[in-house]
Amino acid sequence: MTTAPDALGDVVSFLLLSGVFYVVLRWVTAPLLVHLGTGVEYALNVAAAGLLFPEYCWTRAQRRVSGHAAAFAYAYGDAVCALAGAGHRCAGTLLTALHAAAVRLGHRGSLWCGVLGAAAMMVPRLL
Asked: CA nearest 117: which of 97, 105, 48, 74?
């Protein structure tokens, strides 16, 4: 059984969490999503470069020994570049959709989403 101070602490936590979610959803999410696109692009480029580096080293060694690169090296590079391009397109589409939804979210929508998010985070504590 919960005591009165415990219940009051839960109510205060719920209200503070709801307020934080409201502020983040209303004023932080849309500008953050605009700048997040650049970070995701850089991360995908670094991952692609990391995947291409061993192939680059192998191709250089192969050219020193035999004078030409292995045929599969070009296929591997093309596959990694195609995968990186698909990742860019998917991330761009997803971030654009999330940004459009965040911009359309008004005060009421932010408030309700904040209350529901706070309630979802408080449920495990109350159980």
From this structure: 105
